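I am writing to request your help with a piece of structural work I have in hand. Here, with my thanks, is the record as I have it:
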Amino acid sequence: MLEKLIYGARQLGLVLTPQQMQQFQLYYEELIEWNNRINLTAITDYEEVQLKHFLDSLTLVPVIQRITHAEGGLTLLDVGTGAGMPGLPLRIALPEVKVTLMDSVAKKTAFLQHLIDKLCLDYVNILTGRAEEMAHRPDYREKFDIVVSRAVTKLPTVVELTLPFCRVGGIAIAQKKGDIEEELSNAAKAMDILGGKTREIIKIALQLLEPRLIIVMEKVAATPTRYPRRAGMPEKRPL
């Protein structure tokens, strides 16, 4: 059971407990069952889910573990979480982290609420809404130690949708693949406007995964109140 995930996790220096393995197995089973009703993922093969969803999410664990813990534990927001990645695998692997999962699609957040109930996970909050709107709410703006996103869009857009949620002194993390030199150059302006800077770029090279990059951004100043712009604008007209 979960042989690929266990092997890959060990390459990251992680040893999953029997309880964590049971949680990942149940996660897979519920994901496949619900995927027959709502479109959660195109990846359904058992081994591929272990690698492309679960292990890919866990590549962030060593990065997070290096961060000094805030009082009462770290708070983490996953923007555009979809079927819960990377936020929920991170919560399984890091029980002390308080995780908030955000997605604009109510059917997906209904799945996530069902899933955390089945997994008996505490310290998980589910939010339904667009990042462009939620980031202007006082309860969420600049409140999180860590903000993560599996960046399927361009990096300048990711920056605008994540940094406003991040407290000054916190970090935003984007996962990317391929050549991102041009994206990084374009994102520098967005980071400067929104109060961030590139802290480090980490290359992930695991035997079972394609090479990928983790871009860690540090929040060094408050985000101007006008950002993020209205829904759709960060995607249509990146900073």
About this structure: The first strand starts at residue 75 and ends at 79. The chain has a mean pLDDT of 94. Residues 18-35 form the longest helix (18 residues).
